Every structure is written in C-alpha cells, then in structure tokens.
Amino acid sequence: MDTYRRAAVPPQKLYIGGTWQEAQGGTLDVVSPIDGQKLTTIESASAADVDRAVAAARAAFEDGRWSRMAPAARKKVLHRIADIIEREALALTVLGVRDNGTEIGMALKAEAGSAAGTFRYYAEAIDKVYGEIAPTAPDVLGLVHREAVGVVGAIVPWNFPLMIGAWKLAPALAAGNSVVLKPAETASLSLLRLAEICAEAGLPDGVLNVVTGEGRVTGESLALSMDVDVLVFTGSGATGRRLLEYSARSNLKRVYLELGGKSPNVVFADAPDLDQAAKVSAMGIFRNSGQVCVAGSRLLVERSIHDDFVALMAKHAKALKVGDPLDLSSQIGAVNSDTQLQGNLGFVADAVKEGGEIALGGSRILESSGGYYMEPTIVTGVRPDHQLAQREVFGPVLAVTPFETEEEAVQIANGTDYGLAAGVWTGNLSRAHRMIRDIRAGVVHVNTYGGADNTVPLGGVKQSGNGHDKSLHALDKYTDLKTAWIQL
Ligand code: NAD
Questions:
Q1: How confident is residue 347, by pLDDT bands cut at 50, 70 and 90?
Q2: Where is the active site (predicted)?
Q3: Residue 2 above 90 pLDDT?
Q4: Is the Cβ–Cβ distance between 167 and 467 less than 8 Å?
Q5: Handedness of CA 250, 251, 252, 258 (dihedral sign)
Q6: DSSP state of 91
Q7: b/e per residue, 46-69, with b = 16+ CB within 10 A?
Q8: Per residue in 406-433, is it b (16+ CB within 10 Å) or e — as a string?
Q9: pLDDT of residue 148
Q10: Measured between alpha carbons, how far is 340 from 333 in angstroms, rounded to an integer?
Q11: What secondary structure does DSSP assign to 294-339, as a single string?
C-alpha cells in the first residue's frame, strides 16, 4: 500500500474518443484531504470540450461499434473490466482514497470491490433481458423492443466515485449506450483510471468519455447539451433542481436524480439487542465521516430508553478511530474537503444556537496533519423543526430526537423533504411491517442499518430523487421502449 500511497500522480487529462486531451478551460488543483497538500491537477473542461466528448459518444453510438455488437461480445468486455478492477483493486482504491479521504477498509469493499461486482452483474444481464410479445388480437403481432437510448450523460458526486460511477456506467454500457461521464472535482482520479481500464478491456474508443471540471461549467454544459439523450445524476438536491431546468431549457432529455437524505433511524424500546443496535447505528451515521447518502443522520429513540441508548451510541462512537484513511486501523477517514468540514462545523454551531446539546464530539481534530478530520458528533435535544433535523449535513453529525408512540415516530420520520432511507429497530414483527409500510423512503432497514447489494434497487422518494440505481430496474433508465405493430 505504501508504494501506491507515495506514487506521484501525473497531471490528468480529459478522455475523449479514446485519446487523452487537454481542456480549453485550463486546469484545477486536486488537494488531498489526508494532508491538505496538492496531489495533482485535473483538466477543467469548457463547453467546447464537453461538445467534443458528446460528439465522440454520438459517433460511436451511431456507427454501432458498441451498440450493435453482439450481446455476448459486450458481455465479455464488461467481465474483463471487472477482472481488471479486481486485479488492480488496491492501486485503484488507494488512488481514490488519496483523492477523497474515505477510510481504506471501507473503500476496498465499497469502491473497487463494489464496482467490479456491478460490472459483472450487468454483464450477466446483457443476454438475459428479453423484449416482449404483446397479447394482441391474433391477426396482428405487437412486439415491444427495448432499445439503447443513445448518449447518456452521467454526473456523479465525490463520495464513492467508483461505486456510484459503476452504478451508472455498467447498466448504461450493458444496454449498448455511449456515455459521457463527469466526475466530481474532488474525486475524479479513480474514474479517469477506470476509463483506461475500460479501454484495456476492449471497450471501443468513444463509447466512454470522461470530462472533468467544475459543476457550473463542465456539468452544466453536459446537462444543457442538445445531443445527450438521458442524464443520470447523483448529488445534491440543489444541483438536481438545476439539471431539471437545464433539461427544460435544452432538449427535454430524461433526467434521473439520486439526491440527498435526512434518514431516520428509529429505535424502539423493544429492540432485541440495544447494544448491537447502538453499535450498528453508530457505523450507520459515522462511517466515511457521515458522507454516505443513506446515512442514518436522525436518531429517533423511544423516550423510555433515550438516555441509555444515547450513552450506548456515544460509547460506540467514541471507540471509532478517526485518522489517516490509508492507515488500516482507522475506522473513519477524512472529510472530503475544507469546505465540507467548515460546513459540518457550522451545522453543529447552529444546532447549539437552536437549543441542541452536544453529547459527543463537535470539533475538528488532527489539525496538525493539514488534513480535514472531524470527531463523530452527537447532538441531543433536536426538535423535528430544527435545522439539524431538516437539512442534510453530509458529515459525521447525528441529530437525536425522542418520541413517545409509534404514530409519533412515523410522523417525525416522515417530517422532512427527504425520503431516501430509514432504519427500524424492534422485536415486534407486526410493528416492523407497519413501519416499512408507513415510512416514506426508498429503503427501510430492519434491525440493521445500511446493508445492500446489486440485486436490490436504491433510489429515493420525495426530494431524495427519482429513478433507481442497481438491480435490473436500473436498465429502464438506459433503454427506450419501441413498439412494432405488424399486420399478419
Ligand atoms: P453536488 O450536487 O455538489 O455535486 C455532484 C456533481 O454535480 C459533481 O460532479 C458536481 O461537479 C456536479 N455539479 C455541481 N453543480 C452542477 C451544475 N450546476 N450543473 C451540472 N453539474 C453540477 O453534490 P456532492 O456534494 O458532490 O455530493 C453530495 C451529495 O450527493 C449529497 O447530497 C448526497 O446525499 C448525495 N448522494 C446521493 C446518493 C444517492 O444514491 N441518492 C449517493 C451519494 C451521494
């Protein structure tokens, strides 16, 4: 690992049409959150650069070099991508961690490991998803074809870039599309390397293009493009809102949004093992410094066990070692950027002004390293209308609110604009099912928090987004339906 950690990272370029190109828009510095030092530079793609990438994707799609390749051949390429990711898992993951600060133990599984699994899942789907024959009158034949949409624009965030990148790329490519991928400014490196891996695996030039740069320039140009057919996005609600506007102002491209959350983790006094619930719940909010879309950032706890449960959470949270994300003993790594860290601290200060009490943490730590680290932080006395209960922090900050009854728990759980994830801890099976039914969220975890795999979809309701990543349902985003109506 030390070799990869010390390896110089050369200045990065844009990947367009199978070649590395300079941007007309200049470069951006990449600063490592581990020590606050400059790691390398990425190109800042201008509108003209993005147009070149979209044109390359369109040309590749239209000439059929990938879109009309036999499904079995496409499947082999996706499997080879997974093979290379697995072979290079450590190098790829360390590169990503130097860029975005996620603790290596988690990143190995959630980044390279997960990305390889996702490419394999959709590789296998390629020759197992069929069209339909409609039950029409006997003198006609109604065929429902599933076609690739054409050029997919994918804009992804800085947390788990490989995992989320693969959630978009693998089904888009499996369906035969070409893609222009725009990584986040603070997590581009592993996705640029992934582009090389795809080429090594035999993905034809132009099918995957990667444009780096600022959201308001590079991302906006991609979203405004008249030649992008579908835009898939993971990131904040504010950006998601803009993307819908850009679509309306350009070609009405379909826009799929995976946005933020303020996910409630509801603990009833009848939970089977409160200590275990506290341990898992602590990881459910604090892993990756809380920079997880489904993080259980609101703890709703039955009043009769409130003080005991908060004490258990504090015990487990305190035991988590925060530090250098490339040290295997660190259970929590760095916050992604100084901006993000300052935002987290601001949320805590505001919560205290609103009447919240800090039960644990609250501060920046390890400042002498030059990096961005924050203690796991628990704030009690947070009322449902407080900012900390309503707004996503995307940092290691837990808001605790007591409740009296199941009805009140549901009401508080549903009392935000978000609906991404939830947790319920109870030993009562009927109550568990009632909570699954009543909580408005894309996923409800019962007696655990945060598990998932490729077989189940991930997506939000309300202002947490639309559309789903993962599972066979994700293919719907990357395909159009076409009917053939044939008189017999
Ligand atoms: P962000 O919205 O700031 O940025 C996401 C991406 O959008 C980046 O690539 C950025 O450059 C780009 N972007 C920014 N402004 C843009 C614009 N005007 N036009 C086009 N592109 C633009 O989000 P972030 O801070 O990178 O990520 C954190 C957010 O992502 C959190 O809200 C988190 O909950 C959410 N998230 C959601 C999921 C999910 O599956 N629902 C998963 C991970 C993260």
A1: very high
A2: 258
A3: no
A4: no
A5: negative
A6: H
A7: bbebbbbbbbbbbebbeeebbbeb
A8: bebbbebbbbbebbbbbbbbbeeeebbe
A9: 98
A10: 14
A11: T---EEEEEGGGHHHHHHHHHHHHHTSPB--TTSTT-SB---S-HH
159 Cβ inside 6 Å of ligand 1:
yes
Residue span of the structural domain in which 356 resides: 264-453
Q: Is residue 359 part of a domain?
A: yes
Atom of ligand 1 minimally distant from the CA of 185: 11
In this structure, is residue 428 part of a structural domain?
yes
Q: Are residues 105 and 190 in the same domain?
A: yes
Q: Quick one: 277 and 317 in the same domain? A: yes
pLDDT in tens, 157-201: 999 999 999 999 999 999 999 999 999 999 999 999 999 999 999
Point out the ligand 1 atom lying closest to the alpha carbon of residue 158.
26
pLDDT of 407 reads: 98
Q: Is residue 1's pLDDT more than 90?
A: no
- The DSSP H or E segment spanning 61 is helix 47-62
133 in any annotated domain: yes
State yes or no: is 258 an active-site residue: yes
Name residues whose C-beta falls within 8 Å of residue 293's C-beta, 6 or more positions apart in sequence.
Answer: 159, 234, 258, 259, 260, 261, 420, 421
Q: How many angstroms separate the alpha carbon of residue 162 from the centre of ligand 1?
A: 14
* pLDDT at residue 324 tops 90: yes
User: Cα 197 vs. chain centroid, distance in angstroms?
Assistant: 21
Single out the catalytic residue among 88, 185, 258, 375. Answer: 258
How remote is the CA of residue 388 from the centroid of ligand 1, in Å? 20
Q: Which atom of ligand 1 is least distant from the CA of 464?
A: 41
Q: For residues 398 and 313, is the Cβ–Cβ distance under 8 A?
A: yes
pTM over 0.85? The answer is yes
Cβ atoms of 267 and 303 within 8 Å: the answer is no
Classify residue 458 by its DSSP letter.
Answer: B
- 119-157 pLDDT, tens per residue? 999 999 999 999 999 999 999 999 999 999 999 999 999
Q: Is 413 left (phi over 0), alpha (psi -120 to 50) or beta?
A: alpha
Tell me if 243 sits within 8 A of 233, measured CB to CB: yes
pLDDT of the residue at 468: 96
- CATH code of the domain containing 326: 3.40.309.10
242 and 272 housed in the same domain? no
| 268 CA to centre of ligand 1 in angstroms | 33
